[in-house]
Write a structure and sequence with these properties.
CATH architecture of the largest domain: Orthogonal Bundle
CATH topology of the largest domain: Transferase(Phosphotransferase), domain 1
Radius of gyration: 51 Å
Distance between the termini: 142 Å
Number of domains: 3
Strand content: 5-15%
Shape: rod-shaped
Largest sheet: 5 strands, antiparallel
Order of helices and strands: EEEEEHHEEEHEEHHEEEEHHEEHHHH
Strand order of the largest sheet: 6-7-8-10-9
CATH superfamily of the largest domain: Transferase(Phosphotransferase) domain 1
CATH class of the largest domain: Mainly Alpha
Number of helices: 11
Number of strands: 16
Helix content: 25-40%
Length: 494
């Protein structure tokens, strides 16, 4: 047997030498043994690593076997022959390295460079994505978070979800903004489920004191049904603000028609007079015809909304209060808009039906004159619209206060009536102001308006409100008496 030993272990029992063992070339004719060693794939070296002459015929028997031997003894190891060649009486065939199998992997598989780079990135990306999703979910929940308490269960049908209102107004974006007032912003929107157009007003209400009562009043006002009142559909409460939801009035507020910059009036006199009577009818309903007395507390042109037929409707009940018939309203902090506040409201903070009448009187003068309630004269001094109209009345030139854009295209009797009624309603003394029932009678012509005399208007509003003695309970004032008389000096109109 001629064996080639392939192992990496020294076996002392076989007198194994401590060296590398390789294959050998043996030439029987010359008895020459050549040992060569080279890396796999390299050409066979011309010069052998070891060359020796030894006659093997005296050692080998006539029958011999050619093969491989490998032993490790007590040590566990693996040997692998990828390829071998053998020939007798001629050189061994060349081994084609490219066709040899791959050396079996020993130990753990080496990690891919690509994996080493992408795995940490993928892991970090996944963690960030999960964190981002959590943040978005928390943000979404906080964005739509509402304030709900047990007592609000009774008002459930009148409560809107903030999520619905947010989507209805497209996130309260500027494009949906209808107007900005002293008490909040109003946005146009379309409810996602019902597709109903609504106007949403965001009102700041930081104090929780009286919140239950306030919501109860809002819901109660939501039951108001009158052709001259914008329906209040419901509310939403979120953190420090209230959102009031109304029917959407397609033609906007009266304010933009009175103070448009066009030379031609956008509202004819007939339309103005129709709006005035509609607002008066709505206030009469609030004060006397409903189950409770409702005080609006913020009557002004921007809160008079026009529907698709240009009918005037009272809107924005965010500041309103209600109480039982036959009882006195409670004193509260003063709210409203400067120029429309009755003197007694400024002094005492107590709103009443008479303070609504005062604001309605200012509204009458505004609609007729198209002038702001507080304005500057030619000298730059500030004075009230009532003083300006009153001055013209004293000078016999009352009709000169009518909106000049109307020219002569108005009813002189109706304009005269409205101006006179405006002065009565905005009188600083409560006892002189008519009720809304009386106002309706005057406007419909059922009752003649009381005659005005210089005695009743021997003051200016500005001086009156600055008088430190205003509001004394001992102050008396002559009552107006009914008369069929009209202003002595009238001009213009038709």
């Amino acid at each position: 047997m001629f064996a080639v030993e392939l192992d990496t272990t020294q076996n002392d029992e076989f007198k194994d030498i401590d060296n590398n063992h390789v294959w050998a070339d043996y030439d029987g004719e010359t008895s020459k043994i050549d040992v060569t060693l080279a890396q796999a794939g390299a050409a066979k070296p011309v010069r052998p690593l070891l060359s020796s002459t030894y006659n093997l015929s005296v050692i080998l028997k006539d029958k011999s076997y050619i093969g491989f031997s490998a032993t490790t003894g007590a040590i566990s190891t693996r040997h692998c022959v990828l390829g071998w060649s053998f020939a007798m009486n001629r050189p061994a065939p060349t081994i084609d390295i490219s066709k040899l199998p791959k050396l079996p992997r020993v130990g753990p598989k080496p990690r891919s460079k690509v994996l080493e780079i992408t795995l940490p990135i993928a892991t970090a990306t996944f963690v960030l994505a999960v964190g981002l999703v959590i943040v978005l979910l928390v943000y979404r929940r906080l964005r739509y978070k509402e304030v709900k308490e047990d007592w609000e269960v009774d008002f459930g049908p009148h409560r809107f979800s903030f999520k619905d209102l947010f989507h209805a107004t497209r996130g309260f974006r500027k494009k949906n903004l209808l107007g900005v007032g002293g008490f909040g912003k109003v946005y146009q929107g379309v409810l996602p489920k019902s597709k109903v157009e609504v106007a949403v007003k965001r009102v700041s209400h930081e104090s929780r004191q009286g919140m239950k009562e306030f919501i109860a009043e809002v819901v109660s006002i939501g039951r108001l049904r009158h052709r001259s009142i914008v329906p209040l559909l419901g509310y939403c409460r979120r953190q420090g603000e209230l959102l009031l939801v109304y029917d959407y009035m397609s033609n906007g507020s009266l304010n933009k028609y009175l103070y448009c910059e066009d030379a031609q009036p956008s509202l004819s006199w007939d339309r103005r007079f129709h709006i005035i009577k509609g607002v008066a009818s709505g206030l009469f309903y609030l004060h006397e015809k409903w189950e409770k007395v409702v005080i609006h507390r913020d009557i002004k042109p921007s809160n008079i909304l026009l529907d698709n037929e240009m009918n005037g409707r009272i809107g924005d009940f965010g500041l309103s209060r209600l109480y039982d018939h036959g009882t006195d309203p409670q004193t509260t902090h003063m709210v409203g808009t400067m120029g429309y506040l009755a003197p007694e409201l400024v002094r005492s903070g107590k709103a009443s039906t008479s303070t609504d009448v005062f604001a309605f009187g200012v509204l009458l003068l505004e609609v007729t004159c198209a002038q702001r309630p507080v304005k500057k004269n030619a000298q730059g001094d500030q004075h009230t619209l009532m003083d300006w109209v009153l001055e013209h009345w004293r000078n016999g030139s009352l009709m000169e206060t009518v909106d000049p854009r109307l020219k002569d295209d108005y009813n002189i009797d109706e304009a005269c009536l409205v101006l006179k009624l405006g002065l009565l309603c905005s009188h600083p003394f409560v006892s002189v102001r008519p009720t809304m029932r009386q106002v309706m009678q005057y406007l419909e012509g059922d009752t003649a308006i009381p005659e005005l005399t210089s005695t009743h208007f021997s003051f200016t509003m500005q001086a009156f409100t600055q008088d430190e003695g205003f509001g004394s309970p001992n102050v008396t004032y002559p009552q107006l008496t009914s008369s069929t008389g009209t202003f002595s000096s009238l001009s213009g109109g038709r």
